[in-house]
Specification:
By secondary structure, this protein is mainly alpha-helical. The chain is built from six helices and two strands.
Length: 185
Amino acid sequence: MSDDRQEKVTIGRRVSLVVDWFEVGALSASTAALAVLLIANVIARTFFQAIYFAEELAEFLIIFTTFVGVSYAARKARHIRMGAFLDSMPPKVEKVFLYFISSINALVMFIMAYHSWNYMLTARMMGQTTQALRMPYWITLVIVPIGFASAGIQYVRTVWKNIQEEDVWQSPEQQSEYEDEVGGY
């Protein structure tokens, strides 16, 4: 492998590690924060007074977790797929299906990113604010187009990985796990 190609692989691998670190950290932190917030609110509501911003913050954390999770699921092949259907195909046919499915998924994710970006801009222009915290509503929507675009990029990476590699890859980081009938389930 040439030095130039080796350097690109190393940079690509480093970017992948940084993205993985961010996604896993963000998902873990937002899920933990959501659990703590909701438990604290239940306790506060039972014994004292409810936390006035808990529902808004919980809504933001759920949106954040969902759309960071979309990209994570696409990158790690943890999304809904037709595993039994694909696993029953010969590898070359499975690869063709993965080209098609990943290309369509990428297109849909980019279309959704475009529309969610426009929605976020509309919310910004309207000057909507959240009720309890009075912060601009569009700020809670920033992650939506980012999550869709990131997922689209992961599907494009899946297509590219399948073009580069002889083996079948379900995602840029997950090789197909075809099991023969002898091994069984």
